[in-house]
Every structure is written in structure tokens, then in C-alpha cells.
Amino acid sequence: MCPTRGRSGPGTGLPSTTTGISPTLRTGCLDAVTSVSGGGSRSPEVLAELLLPVIYAYGTNTGIKAVASGGHGHTEDELRYVRRRYFSAEAARAIAIQIANATFAARSTELWGQGSTAVASNSTHVRAYDQNFTEWHSRYGGRGMLIYWHVEKKSLAIHSRLINCTASEVAAMIEGAMRHGTAMDVEANYTDSHDQSDIGFGITRLLNFDLLPRIKRINKVGLYRPVAGEPDAYPQLSPR
């Protein structure tokens, strides 16, 4: 999880020897991470060693206390200090964008094929205890929160955000496709039935990307031809 480094003292995080270059530093994802106070004198190497356990703690819901018991040599107080001073929501989003862009740039077309222009988006219900930020979700039948994801064809998440349990997933789908911030050019968005509407089709058309939903009970839905007066142009849409 952390770069392999020696230390000049127990728990100090000060590297004395370097046995390898961290892939985290190669991506440049820490360039946008600054102290909330505007200062900070930690080197990128030391900051990476401290931030990676913090990101793992929050990203996996393991918690800083549990992660601090690992064999990385940093105390719980050190990790909590870095969390308060460096790890903001804006920093987390900037890190995710840089890692996604670095992944796109490093992919070999011989192995992965041409770059994808399509994403699939959906929400995940995360159950949580009855606290201020939780809501009751009628469809999932429990308290928690919704995380809305945009994932490109080759399984790389390019955008995620927290939404209310009563919020429109159509709005979250449009916002993620527009404001993901990565180098990917989204031309199509696959969704399920909850992420599409007549308004959604209209807005995505204006934004020049295709909304491609899975529609439940499509045999009960009235479909309209793209152009009137050409019944033979779309034989699969003809009444049966």
C-alpha cells in the first residue's frame, strides 16, 4: 500500500534510502494536494506515505484506527493530522482525476484496444447507522446514503458523488458525464431505468452524448420514430 522506504527514526516517516519509485508519485496526483492552512513543508515522498493509508482507510471504510495498526510505521495521530490538514474533498477529487488520466495515458492500445468513449452509471446504496447524514430509502428499504458512479467501459471510475436518497438520478447522470474532469471524451452513457426520462433524453441530446438506458417493460412503452413520415425506415419499430 505504501512505498517501500527506510526511515531515519521510528514513526518519523523520513526516508533515508529509496528502493523504488512510487507509482503514486509518477502520476503527479499529489501535485494538487496542499495544506488547508496554506503552508506545509512535507516532501511528496513523505506525504504519499501518509496519505495512502488515509485514502485506504476512508475508501474501504476500514477506518483510520484500524489502518494505523498496520506495519507502515505511522501512528494514528500522524494519520489523523494529515487527514485534517491535507485530505479534503477537493483534494480527493483531484487525486482521482489525475490517476484516471495517468491510466488512460499508460494503456497500451495493443492490449486494451482504442480508448473508450462510453460510460455506465448507477447509484450504490451504502447502509449506515441513523445519523444526521443518513436518509431512509424506500426502494432499498433502509437507512443510508447513495453514491452515484460513472464507470468507463474498461472498469475505471471517472466520477462519483454523494446524492440524497430522494434525489433525481437523471440529474446525477448528466452532471457526472459533464463534469467528470478527466481526459475522457464521453459520447455515450449507459444507465438503468431509474436514470432516464424524457427530459434526460433532451438534455443529453443538447450536450452531444447519447443516453442509452435499459428500459423496464419496454413492450408496454410507446416508441416514436426519429423522423415522422418514414414508416419503412425503421422496420423494427413497426407494430406487430
CATH class of the largest domain: Alpha Beta
Q: CATH topology of the largest domain, which one?
A: Nucleotidyltransferase, domain 5
Which stretches of 5+ consecutive residues score pLDDT under 50? 1-21
CATH superfamily of the largest domain: Ribonuclease H-like superfamily/Ribonuclease H
Would you tell me the structural class of the helices and strands? Answer: alpha/beta
**Amount of beta strand:** 15-25%
Q: How would you state the average pLDDT, rounded?
A: 78
Please tell me how large the radius of gyration is: 23 Å
Overall strand count: 8
Q: Which H/E pattern describes the elements? A: EEHHHHHHEEEEHEHE
The major pleated sheet works out as: 6 strands, mixed
**How many angstroms separate the termini?**
58 Å
Proportion of residues in helical segments: 25-40%
Number of domains: 2
